[in-house]
Amino acid sequence: xxxxYQPNVTxxxxxxxxxxxxxxxxxxxxxxxxxxxxxxTLMLSFGGTLPIKIQKHTGTLSISNMNxxxxxxxxxxxxxxxxxxxxxxxxxSAINPLPLTISA
Length: 104
What we know:
Elements: E1 6-19, E2 36-52, E3 55-70, E4 82-95, E5 98-103
Antiparallel strand pairs: 1-2, 2-3, 3-4, 4-5
């Protein structure tokens, strides 16, 4: 395409768990105080830089999908679960020395 065009692709995955090991055999410990969650996040980003004469244009499209699962042994209406999809589009244009940024 263009010799100066600088494309990039980034793929990421994050997984973590959170647990407080609450002993539910003790009568003072309530199962609703238990913490036992898993979070999985998948991230994908496309971007590129295109310099044209004295202008430099940079664009990025990012997509992120996160899923939080609550594994406590409680009724379904008491679970703290979440599914999130995030889209981000960003365009930056710079004309030396005046920068212009547009984000949506």
